[in-house]
Amino acid sequence: MNRKLRIGMVCPYGWDTPGGVQIHMKELAEYFMSQGHVVSLLAPVSDEDALTESWVVPAGRPVPIPFNGAVARILFGPIATSRVRQWIQSGEFDLLHIHEPAIPSLSLLACVAADGPMVATFHASAPKQKAIFAIGPILEPVLEKLNARIAVSEMARETLKVHFETEAVVIPNGISAAKYSHGKRREDWYRPHTLGFLGRFDEQRKGLSVAISGLAEIAKSIPDVQLLVAGPGEQESVLKNIDSATRNRIRFLGRLSEEEKADFFKSIDAYVAPNIRGESFGIILAEAMAGGAPIIASDIQAFSDLLQGGKYGALFVNESHKDLAEKATKILSDENLRRSMSEEGLSFAMTFDWQSVAAQILDVYEVAIAGGTGVTLASENRGWRKLRNE
Amino acid sequence: MSNSILLAILVILLLAWYLSFSATRLDRCHHRVETSWEHLDALLQRRAALALEIARNSDIDPATEMILTSSAYLSREANIGDREDAETSLSESLKFLRESARNGELTIAVNLIDELTALTDKIRTAIAIHLEAIISVRNLRDKLVFRFFHLAGRAKWPEKYHFEEDEL
What we know:
The structure holds 2 protein chains of 2 kinds.
Chain A: E1 6-10, H1 20-34, E2 38-43, E3 56-58, E4 63-67, E5 70-74, H2 78-91, E6 95-99, H3 106-113, E7 114-115, E8 118-122, H4 132-143, E9 148-151, H5 154-164, E10 169-170, H6 177-181, E11 194-198, H7 208-218, E12 226-230, H8 235-239, H9 244-247, E13 250-254, H10 258-266, E14 270-273, H11 283-290, E15 295-298, H12 301-306, E16 314-316, H13 321-332, H14 335-349, H15 354-369, E17 376-377, H16 384-389
Parallel strand pairs in A: 1-2, 1-6, 2-3, 6-8, 8-9, 9-10, 11-12, 11-14, 12-13, 14-15, 15-16
Antiparallel strand pairs in A: 4-5, 7-17
Chain B: H1 2-57, H2 62-74, H3 80-102, H4 110-142, H5 144-148
């Protein structure tokens, strides 16, 4: 599409709290702007003075509400509603791209307040909500206004289908593949037979304990195996009850910068993702592949989907350190296997690069704006109440 | 000789009396935890019903309506684990609504707001009383004599729920 668009994006969660949705939106917006499109992004912001992106429009301070088993920082209420309407009215957007409109926050308000081309991305995957019978009647007429729905994974698509009986196009989350291709092997990190783990390692669901039990098992046949653990967390909480021989095979690198992350993927023989549950996409696997690391991952659905059932990485039975050790030992002791996994991973990772992902999203935009006349404010008298009572 | 037997009998009698006295005391405290929870529970159910009414009968935005509706339904769940989060959601969103109504940003029927305010005050008191009852049971059960003689029997250790710490 050659036409340059004015895109309005809406984020439901606090912009200044770290999260997958926020990172995805930031990178997508920056990519579109680098292509000459104009992006304005409306989001809840806790500290407006610390906001660095000129294209982010703060809509107010988010409120922490427990929702679907996690505390979400969201924004609702009369003031938020009028901010959303103001932003839509003054934005002259060709199209709105709304993220997570099924969360009771700005995105939902924007979807109600606007008329015209609208696309929504659904990120979350969750088992069927208990109160869906109660909120379904609120959401259904709103979600019907969307011209197109995007799900970031097969699981997110399933979730959408189960809750609202509606279909979606699957377009994966994006990464900046180029960022990870220039990493250098750090000699102070690497030694032969090195495995890597990255993430908040003291969260039980990330499964580091499975990797550590696996490490002891691998050491029986590869005594000099090493596990590099990168990311923030409390070391003591994972190291207690671990014998000293295994402890000596683990090195903590702390939180890594983006450049260090690229070096990290080059300084390991394989990346281990032992996550037990709670992943809906697994962007880290795409990043590790873009960095050239062979993947060993638990067979939870998100990982199995992303690796196409084990085609682009080794899957082990979730929570089985024995199976992890078996797969890891095979990969660590076979250089040719590692090389071919790395090469296949590299080319596969390009399918997650923004260049390809954003192009697919633009294709969806194109369908949405066909014949449209831009985004306008839904008139008050056809407002929310009317919509529901129709 | 007969003196020391008498003394022993006296000691045993005293001990028996003390134990039964303590057990009664603990039982009374346990009972208070139960009744104060029943009272609180009834108030919370009324709050959920009121939240639904507010969601239906006032001109609030769909996001707020969705939070109120889903947490009101979830707070009727029997499973307290599922319920805790819903109660916190209700506390937070109703607090937000009352503030908005007070600042004139939102119009909610006056009788609903008045009822909500009165109910919130009652809940605040009911939570304080319930927590107090829990603490007194916990303090008693932590004492050596209660643990040693297993005076609590099979009574459950009284639980605090995190929504009881919400600011209302």
